C-alpha cells in the first residue's frame, strides 16, 4: 500500500470511535437562540425579539450578509418554545402556527438557500424545560422522522422532565432513530448535564459513540460570574473531559454571550480565547442585528477561529494556576503549532507575568509568536525570559508556530518595525536578549 493509503487507513481506524455519521469533524459554529431570546413568545408586543420565523430569518440574513458564514458560522439553531402546545392529529410535533406560519420546513429551506444549516430543539422527557411537548420514549422514532422530513441539520435533545433510566434508554435510541432516517442530522445531547457531568454516572465513551456533542454542565447566563463558573468546572475536570473530545465528539460549555450585556471587552476576549482552547462549539447567542463592532471583531477573529477549528481536534488544558492569579492554558494544534492563553483572574490592574517558553514545556528552539488579539508577531527563543501584560479578567492569546530557522528570521525581524513595537510592548523590563 502506498504510504498515503496507510495514513488514510489509520485515520479511518481512529475516526470510527466517534458517532459514525461523519458530521462535525471540527466544533460546530453558528447561532443559537436561547441565552439571548429565551422563551419570549409575546410576538404581539415584542415582534422583533419573540421566538418566531422572523427572528431566525433575520439572524440568517445577518450571518449570510455580514461575513459570518464565510468564517464558518453556519448553524442557525432554534431552541425551546418553538412548538405548538399540542401534537397534531397524527401525533407529530408541529411548530406554533402563528409564530412559524411557514412551519419548520420553510425555515430549513431558507437556511439551505443561503448556505446555512438549521437546528431544532427537543427534550428527552414528557415536556421541554419551558413546558412544551417533549419526546417521551414512544415518540422517538416519529420525532426523528419529522425532523428529517423538515430537513433539519442538528437536533439538540434536552433532558427536562425525565429521569436517569429514561435518559439511558432514550438518548441512544434517538441516535439510532436519527441515523435510520438516512438524513445526516448532527446530535447534541444534554444527557451528561442532567447526570452531574462526570463518571461513573456519565459514560463518555458511550456518548462519543452516540452524540456529536454534549452539554456537560450548567446553562450559561449573561454574566462574567457564570462564565467563570463554567470555565472553572471544565478545567477542574479537564482530564476526564479532554479524553472524551475529538473530531465528531465535543464537550459543550454552552453558548458565547459576547455582544450581550454581561461581559466587558476584556471578558469577551477571555470567553473567545478559552472557548477556542477548549475546542468548544462556537454558538453565539446574541443579537446579530445590533451587535457592536468590538464584539463583532472578537467573534470574527480569524486566528481564534482557526485555533478553535484545528483539524486535530484535541481539547486544550490548563497547565498552570499561579499564586499571582494568572492561569496559563495550552492547546496542541496541527503541524507542530500550538496555542497559549495567559488569563488574569485578578481585579486590580494589568499584571506583568514573567515566564519563558521552556518553563511552559516548549522544547529547545525558536518559535514564531502571533498575538491573536493584537495581530503582532515576533520570534521567541525557548530559553528567553519574557513578560506579558495581562489585564484584569482579560487574556493574552498566542498562536505559536514550530521552531523556525534562526538566520532568516533575524533578517526578517530587523526589517520589520511592527515587530520592534511588539518587542517594546512585551519586553519593556525583561531580559534584553530576546531575538536570535
Ligand atoms: C435547558 C437547557 C438550555 C435551554 C433551556 C430551554 O435549561 O440547558 O440550554 O435549552 O433548557 O428551556
What does this structure look like?
- It contains 16 helices and 16 strands.
- It has an eight-stranded parallel sheet. Strands 9-10-11-16-13-14 form a six-stranded antiparallel sheet. A two-stranded antiparallel ribbon has the order 12-15.
- β13 and β14 form a beta hairpin.
- The longest helix is centred in the middle third of the chain and has 17 residues.
Q: Unreliable stretches, pLDDT < 50, 5 or more residues?
A: 1-16, 406-436
Shape by Cα distribution: globular
Structural class given helices, strands, pairing?
alpha/beta
State the major sheet. Answer: 8 strands, parallel
Give the strand order, joined by hyphens, for the main sheet.
7-6-5-4-3-2-1-8
Number of helices: 16
Q: What portion of residues belong to β-strands?
A: 15-25%
Count the beta strands.
16
Q: Bound small molecules, which ones?
A: alpha-D-galactopyranose
Radius of gyration: 23 Å
Helicity range: 25-40%
What is the average of the pLDDT values?
91
Give the terminus-to-terminus CA distance: 44 Å
Summarize the structure.
By secondary structure, the chain is an alpha/beta fold. The protein has helices at 3-15, 34-37, 53-65, 68-71, 103-113, 140-149, 164-180, 191-194, 204-210, 224-236, 238-244, 265-277, 293-299, 302-308, 406-414, 417-427, and strands at residues 29-32, 75-77, 117-123, 154-158, 186-189, 213-215, 250-252, 282-284, 317-321, 326-333, 337-344, 351-356, 366-371, 377-381, 385-390, 395-401. The strands form 3 sheets. Strands 7-6-5-4-3-2-1-8 form an 8-stranded parallel beta sheet.
